[in-house]
Amino acid sequence: MFKGKRAKQMRAWLDREAEVAVNSESLVRGFVEECRRRRIILPNTATIERCCADALVAAERRIDARIAARLDSTMRMRLNGLLAEKVDGRTSRFVWLRQFEVGKNSADANRLLDRLEFLQGIELSPDVLTDIPAHRVTRLRRQGER
After folding, report:
1. Same structural domain, 42 and 81
2. Could you say which of 44, 68, 92 is where a domain stops?
3. Exposed/middle/buried for 24, CB within 10 Å: 0-12, 13-18, 19+?
4. Residue 76 sits in the same domain as residue 138
5. Segment 107-116, tens digit of pLDDT
6. Tens of pLDDT, residue by residue, the chain (146 residues)
């Protein structure tokens, strides 16, 4: 049965697997397979979905915390400054950096190069993403674009 010690073991398994799971469906499938492998009677569908969803949210928070912990106070101030600094008096530097227009001429190319130069000047080390699964980095990038 999915109770007591076995439920605790499966939740620990979910915690480990959630960080590398590409999506919730693959985590649910893996959970069912692991229960079968361990000969644990499956709980109802709602319980499986809730356990997997909780594990995914917890994994996302752990990853966010891991990345934030790798930033020193100077880098945090620089990144926070992107929200307060204005470009052309109206758009935050953060929004300006996220804007991407397909270039049609040299002025558009220069604007993209300006953004690249600014980002390189921040000197954010790629090491902050060490051991973070690539699909998680992609998801974080998409969230930033929104």
Report:
1. no
2. 68
3. middle
4. yes
5. 878 888 888 8
6. 888 999 999 999 999 999 999 999 999 999 999 999 999 999 999 999 999 999 999 999 999 999 999 998 888 888 888 888 888 788 888 877 777 677 778 887 888 888 888 888 888 888 888 889 888 888 887 776 66
Residues 59 and 85 grouped into a single domain: no
The 3 state secondary structure assigned to the chain is CCCHHHHHHHHHHHHHHHCCCCCHHHHHHHHHHHHHHCCCCCCCHHHHHHHHHHHHHHHHHHHHHHHHHCCCHHHHHHHHHHHHCEECCCEEHHHHHHCCCCCCCHHHHHHHHHHHHHHHHHCCCHHHHCCCCHHHHHHHHHHHHC
Rounded to two decimals, the pTM is 0.74
